[in-house]
Amino acid sequence: MPTLVLIPGLLCDRSLWNGQIATLQDYSEIIFADITQQSTISEMATAVLQNAPTQFSLAGFSLGGQVALEIMEVAKDRVERLALLSTTHGGLLPAAEASIRHAITMVETDGFDRYLDEAHSSYFAAYGADDAKLRHIFVTMAHAVGPRAGLRQMQALLAIRAPFTNLDQIDCPTVIIGGREDRRTTPEAHRQLALEIPRSKLRIIDGAAHFTPIEQPGKVAEILSSWITQ
Fold first, then answer.
1. Is residue 196 classed as helix, strand or coil in its secondary structure?
2. Where are the alpha helices (DSSP H) in the chain?
3. What is the pTM of this model?
4. What is d(CA 193, CA 105) in angstroms, rounded to the nearest whole number?
5. Side-chain-side CA neighbours of residue 165 (13 Å)
6. Is the torsion defined by CA of 200, 202, 208, 214 positive or negative?
7. CA distances (Å), origin 138, targets 85, 131, 135, 159
8. Cα distance between residue 57 and residue 73, in whole Å
9. pLDDT (tens digit, 9 = 90+) per residue, 28-53?
10. pLDDT score of 128
11. CA quadruple 79, 3, 64, 172: dihedral sign
């Protein structure tokens, strides 16, 4: 059975993908990447590659999407398919960069829980900002990763200062997934990424912001199952 490597995002763990596993495991052997122990995007990409088979499909969410694009720069011949969720063409948009810098200050001065209390609503669509289930998933994942790993991940994101340079050389089947209400990685940023990767397919999901896998799990599962079987 083919292998699918799933890379989570900032302060996320494997449970980010709970809404897609039942569907995707019918088509692939799934490997959950761990990007909590490294300090740079390059180190994260190396760790993912060390734990992946020679050939695999790859899906990355947010920070995980940046790691996926780094993998495409150094080992694109190993990747059979690519899915990028809530991902820019390289680094953070200005508003997201300001939010991450603020987050670092908050975590270091006011504490991790204070940061989570303030930040969670900015990641979700309007309908979900006060959804107790979504908040529980967000906070539980963040605590599983922890503040020290989270700070390393934030610094790694801030260190990306330019778009990835080989986007036009990505030639495997690629899908780009974003939420219509995403204020951190906007629909326009997703459209830009889709323009830069030849023949990629763009899917903008209604009723979702940044956390598409948990805001609209069924829709994301549907898109990924179509992508993994094409």
1. helix
2. 18-24, 41-50, 63-75, 94-109, 112-119, 132-145, 147-158, 187-196, 212-215, 217-229
3. 0.97
4. 30
5. 2
6. negative
7. 17, 11, 5, 24
8. 15
9. 999 999 999 999 999 999 999 999 99
10. 63
11. positive
Residue 81 pLDDT exceeds 80: yes
pLDDT in tens, 156-197: 999 999 999 999 999 999 999 999 999 999 999 999 999 999
Question: Of the candidates 23, 33, 35, 29, which has an alpha carbon nearest to the alpha carbon of residue 4?
Answer: 29
Single-letter amino acid code for the residue at 60: G
Q: Are 35 and 7 in contact (CB under 8 A)?
A: yes
Q: What is the pLDDT of residues 46-80, one digit of tens each?
A: 999 999 999 999 999 999 999 999 999 999 999 99
> Which residue has tokens 């830009």?
192
Residue 8: pLDDT over 80: yes
Domains recognised in the chain with CATH numbers: 3-92+156-229 (3.40.50.1820)
Q: Which tokens go with 93?
A: 């948009």
DSSP state at residue 90: S
Which structure tokens are listed for 216? Answer: 């609209």
pLDDT digits (tens, 9 = 90+) for 100-141: 999 999 999 989 999 999 998 899 998 766 789 999 999 999
- The type of residue at 58 is L
